[in-house]
Amino acid sequence: MKTFIYQMKSGIGRTHEFERKRLAMYCVNVGIKCGHGCAYCSTPSMVRMHVGFKCLGLSPFDNDYAIIDPTTPHRVARDARRIKNRGMVQLCTIADAWSPEAQEYNLGRKCLEAILSEPGWTVRILTKNATVENDFDLICKYRDRVLLGMSITGTPDKSNLISATEPYASPISERLRVMLKARTDGIRTYAMFCPLLPGIANGPDQINELVSLAVEFGAEEIFAEAVNPRGRGLILTQEALAQKGFNTEAAVIASIRNKTRWSRYVTDLIKTLQQSIRKYYDIEKFRFLLYPAGLETNDLRRTKQDDDGVVWL
């Protein structure tokens, strides 16, 4: 995994998209390309026009490199002082602040310190890396102003499959261990089940286990999302699974490249989650992030008939 440096302009910025998702009003990003190498990632499609890729002569769709900006904490500190209308900051929305390349510069901790040193700010952490545990001392210091979430994309028994699609992220068992330790340490948590891939994490047994784990680590909310079909993510996920010999799961991913099957997968996933949430958790604290444009008419109608917990985007 190669790392490139590119100096960005933003520190703390408004994020209307994540505000619609009920996650945060503001965002901080420490780069434009994450080093966890998740095959299904749809972010390259969203940031593909960023001038940084052109300046570095790189394709946003290649998965063998990361782009970060070590100077980000300076701008974050500036904006944390300057902005008067303060609220929740998502750290991060594009590139993980605890990914391997970000760890080299301690970007997660530095950005956290810069934000929390000013009153009125709260932070929602989202990471796939267990090294966030190294910053529990800082998080505990500001425990009322920080929400910790680790992206959980399946149950521990599917670790080999998940490692194929998320090669440089921490193992699922480590992510869950950190979340349980967070509760023990009195840190506020939320659950982020995203994406729940078909054939890996969308079955009733897997969903029930995930929801039960969220209850165990004291999640204040549960967010969930289907895999985004945009860009080359599904193709890359299919290839990553096949290369590791997971041909059955690769075939399932291939099947939802069909619009009708993708629509049915999403609708069934919502219903399975709702059923589990109602049984083990609280439907009022459930947030399924849904872009309805890709749903077939019958699936859209079915979803609207019972859309408890659905955040329409």
Secondary structure topology:
Blueprint: E1 2-5, E2 13-14, H1 16-20, E3 26-28, E4 31-33, H2 43-47, H3 51-56, E5 65-68, H4 72-82, E6 88-91, H5 100-103, H6 107-116, E7 122-127, H7 136-141, E8 146-150, H8 159-165, H9 172-184, E9 188-193, H10 204-216, E10 219-224, H11 233-243, H12 247-255, H13 259-280, E11 286-290, H14 297-305, E12 310-312
Parallel strand pairs: 1-5, 3-6, 6-7, 7-8, 8-9, 9-10, 10-11, 11-12
Antiparallel strand pairs: 2-3, 4-5
Helix pairs in contact: 4-6, 10-13, 11-12, 13-14
Give me the CATH fold name of the largest domain.
pyruvate-formate lyase- activating enzyme
Q: What's the main sheet like?
A: 9 strands, mixed
- Count every beta strand, where a strand is a DSSP E run of 2 or more residues: 12
Query: What do the pLDDT scores average to?
Result: 96
Number of helical segments with 4 or more residues:
14
Poorly predicted runs are none
- Please identify, by name, the CATH architecture of the largest domain: Alpha-Beta Horseshoe
- Strand residue content: 15-25%
- CATH class categorisation of the largest domain: Alpha Beta
Helix content: 40-55%
Distance between the termini: 34 Å
Q: What's the Cα radius of gyration?
A: 19 Å
The number of domains is: 2
Broad shape: globular
Strand order of the largest sheet: 2-3-6-7-8-9-10-11-12
Alpha-beta classification: alpha/beta
The arrangement of helices and strands along the chain is: EEHEEHHEHEHHEHEHHEHEHHHEHE
